[in-house]
Amino acid sequence: MFSFFKRGQDGDGPDDPPAPVDDDRWNMDALAQAPSEPSPAPTPDPIRTLELKPRVVDVICSVFDPEIPVNIFELGLIYDIIVDAQSKVTIHMTLTSPACPSAQQLPNEVWSRVKAIDGVSDCHVEIVWEPPWSPDRMSDVARLQLGLM
Questions:
Q1: Span 54-97, pLDDT tens digits
Q2: Coil, helix or strand for 129?
């Protein structure tokens, strides 16, 4: 079990209450500060987008939801692919639900595969919840693979 408290020095028994950590490594003042402004949206570059977006889509099509035998692009989980002038790729994607068991795995897999594309300088994957995903977002290919057509 993880705790932000250290065990007391006297009587380190399992039932002893934890002693608060008096440690200057924690920046408690940060909790009182207003959240920082979100980073500005990337500015798409049409030339770089034409060059890289087809390759980005190809590698995303190799990422599958482990519970559904369809790639995440055909499932409609990818909402936007933006490529800027420095060849940084920003991907807005969602998950089938906020409680998706693959919430850690899928974005990391997308990030690592896109980052490995020759010509991509960096990649940022952002999980978005609006609009919410629904089966209506699936392509006809996905519907056919799942026997829904």
A1: 999 999 999 998 888 899 999 999 999 999 999 999 999 999 98
A2: coil
The answer to whether the CB of 78 falls within 8 A of the CB of 142 is: no
Q: How far is CA 92 from CA 45, 57, 100, 104, in A?
A: 16, 13, 17, 15
Q: How far apart are CA 70 and CA 82, in angstroms?
A: 23
Alpha-carbon 8 to chain mean position: 39
- 80: β partners: 92
Could you read off the pLDDT of 133-149 as tens digits, one per residue?
Answer: 999 999 999 999 888 87
Domains of the chain, earliest start first: 46-145 (3.30.300.130)
> Cis link prior to 42 (omega < 30° from 0)?
no
